[in-house]
Amino acid sequence: MRLITFSDDTQRIGLLDGDEVVDLQAADPTLPTEMCAFLAAGEEATQAARRVLAGSGSRRPLPSVRLGPPVPRPPKFLGVGLNYRDHAEEAGMEIPKVPMIFNKQSTCAHPPFEPFHLPRASHRLDYEGELAFVIGKECRHVPKEHAAEVIAGYTICNDVSVRDWQLRVPTFTMGKSFDTHGPMGPAIVTADELGDPHTLDVRTWVNGELRQSSNTKNLIFDCFSLVEHLSTAFTLEPGDVISTGTPSGIAGAMKPPRWLVPGDVVKIAIDGIGEIENGVVPEPKETARF
């Protein structure tokens, strides 16, 4: 299945089926209308959604709705630094011996096809095309061999980064968390549909120019190892998003750097999941609220 969050007059969850959206609430009013609640409802909700998908009702054309990030406000939104060898090398950093984990604030989650902001605070705006996975059940101390059991599915994330804010302090949170800097989607593809998450081509284009091209087989720490590592320290919850890291080809490593500017368009595609595409716009004046 391909789980989505969408809106017309209200925001709710559904299924993406080709170029159609299946409205779960309209088909089965007993189902949760928010993604974290749906995932927490477990197998019973999943089977109900499968029955809806098998039916013929409660469908509408995809262009008639607005797709949001599949998880609009993740309980935790985590990233992994330097998780491809070629990216660590282009950054001039040592290959990590343990996963380098950082926070992206949940407020940066952003739709898959809407522009993100060049912030007023910096011009060093960069892209990072990444595979992300979404936790499906509350868990702790999960061995690697059981990690697949707690993953609801997989999606695409652009770990948009403000490089000067990211690198001027040892922790990355500020430079990774600007509003709109977590585009993701278009859907959460369940593991039974996607198959092996570690054989997927990952590609990023800027204005039609291929900038990043790799495969998830090149992850230093794969999805299942990351679940084991993270759950050693803290409870993972339904809706947590973990973005697994980016390969080489970032703007900041080019000579000279080719920072994103207004009018640029970033497209990221991953096998079996689809693609997201976001333009770049100046941060609007109305973002100031006090």
CATH architecture of the largest domain: Alpha-Beta Complex
CATH homologous superfamily assignment of the largest domain: Fumarylacetoacetase-like, C-terminal domain
**End-to-end CA span:** 42 Å
Query: C-alpha Rg, in Å?
Result: 18 Å
**How many separate structural domains?**
2
Strand percent estimate: 25-35%
Structural class, by secondary structure, is alpha+beta
- Tell how many strands the DSSP assignment holds: 19
Question: Which keywords apply here?
Answer:
290 residues; alpha+beta; Fumarylacetoacetate hydrolase, domain 2; 2 domains; 12-stranded mixed beta sheet; 5-stranded mixed beta sheet; globular
Quick summary of this structure?
The protein is α+β, with helices and mostly antiparallel strands. 18% of the residues lie in helices and 33% in strands.
Describe the fold and architecture:
This protein is an alpha+beta fold. The chain has two domains: 2-67, no CATH class; 77-287, Fumarylacetoacetate hydrolase, domain 2 (Alpha-Beta Complex), CATH 3.90.850. Helices cover 18% and strands 33% of the residues. The protein is built from eight helices and 19 strands. Strands 1, 2, 3, 4, 5, 6, 7, 8, 11, 12, 14 and 17 form a twelve-stranded mixed beta sheet that branches. Strand 2 (11-17) and strand 3 (20-23) form a beta hairpin. The longest helix has 13 residues, at 42-54. The protein starts with a strand and ends in an 8-residue tail after the last strand. The model has no long low-confidence stretch (mean pLDDT 97).
